[in-house]
Amino acid sequence: MPILNGDSMASSATNSVDFSKALEVLKNEYPERDGIDIKTLLDSKNHGGLTYNDFLMLPGYIGFPAVEVSLDTPVTKRITLKTPFVSSPMDTVTEHNMAIFIALLGGLGVIHHNCSQDEQAEMVRKVKRFENGFITDPIVISPTTTVAEAKALKEKWGFGGYPVTENGTLRSKLIGIITPRDVQFHDNLDDPVTAVMSTDLITARQGIDLKEANQILTKSKKGKLPIVDENGNLISLVSRSDLMKNLHYPLASKLPHSKQLIAAAAIGTRPEDKNRLQKLVDAGLDIVVLDSSQGNSLYQIEMIKYVKEKYPGIDVIGGNVVTRDQAAALIAAGVDGLRIGMGSGSACITQEVMAVGRPQATSIFNVTSFARRFGVPCIADGGIQNVGHIVKGLALGASTVMMGGILAGTTESPGQYFIGQDGQLVKAYRGMGSIDAMEDKKAGAGSANSKASNAGTARYFSEGDRILVAQGVSGTVRDRGSITKFVPYLMAGVQHSLQDIGVKSLTELRQGVVDGSVRFELRTASAQAEGNVHGLHSFDKKLYS
Ligand code: IMP
Asked: What keywords are assigned to this protein (predicted)?
């Protein structure tokens, strides 16, 4: 039998080597750890600014299962989340639906402000009122609604059971329920629904928990369980068709001792934003994000001081920043969190047009290493295209990552899916500094879903500007399904990555990076090519199932 070269080398080497000494030899003869520490990695004297694809982390030792990796992390000085995922305040990304579902999954959605003050406040209210499994804004009809109108509602909404209340609104006395069966064969279409509605109602009292409500619903054999207050006023509804969907969300983002989800919203720094903030606070806001592409301004510093003084219970996230100097100014003004990124967003052309900005990895490292000294958590905002980018943002010192484009294609983002030019299912995604979005601001049109007046963010343009200079583009992103599947995938991916690095939590990751035990490696262009799929004739990149 032929002896292979490698085999002969191995056998001659094994004769003289004591394997049991491998760890001892490593310790005594290789005092320098493999790879480089973060400071060496980011030292811009060695190269220019770096971004996510320019480096990798080296693997460590796996001594625990991935599911045990904790992703608990602060988003502000006072508020901790169970997952590090934050959705961008953009009108194609975060309205109440995204904010609710990402909070249920342990993250945070920042509601955009390209809409009227009242619309934004209503979205905050919906997040605060949301109780998993309870429909808190059901369609309610009045006793004068006709059978024809009830049938038309079914056509419009696709479901047919509606509570009937005295005033035709929520929080008014419940008098009956109309179901598709009640109206299906009723020929006199002009009859009021009171002629056919069911009045033998099974209801439950406000305060009941979802488990009990589901038990009553199952026993009752009815389609809907109205929840009423002590006066019989309709408060919410539990639906049989939702029974299976009423999942338990153990990671849901809530303040200690609160049953409500945490609500965050963005505002600008103009005088009228103070009115906006008051409405948001009245609606139950917990965190305000001051939305500016260059946060180190007189206006933002004054706004931070104003918010901290007038609303001590509200946490303020300032930004955006990419340098220590910018961060220091906002920290000195009193921010509870910082948002890092300028020009890294997927729909962003700031660096091209303004010639100002910074590569994202360099920005994150410089800002977080400074902010850490003051206990101010940072959000790595923009440029996240995959799980690896998330882990890198966190390893560089960010506590959370903010995502726009990667979440814009999910079911929970605003807007409808449509078929794109290549026949794929897509959704619209636009930078808030795109001409489209800025013209909506000027015209007061607000988000795709709203007819707002008094709208307008000041993130990318000032009122006096005669020419709008775009800092973003508008386009489409492909369908990513529901975030109830996508975010758990991101979470599992981050847990597996941390397991490979050999750390059991985000806290251990940050500590390991600071003390130099988590090691890095720069990636050349050819190393990057090697790290991607290559040499295949064709392939299908399915990310999770
Ligand atoms: P993405 O996750 O890479 O799509 O980046 C989202 C981030 O891009 C947002 O959170 C904002 O910080 C930033 N952004 C949003 N709109 C614009 C724009 O028009 N120009 C530049 N940056 C933008």
From this structure: CBS domain, Cytoplasm, GMP biosynthesis, Metal-binding, NAD, Oxidoreductase, Potassium, Purine biosynthesis
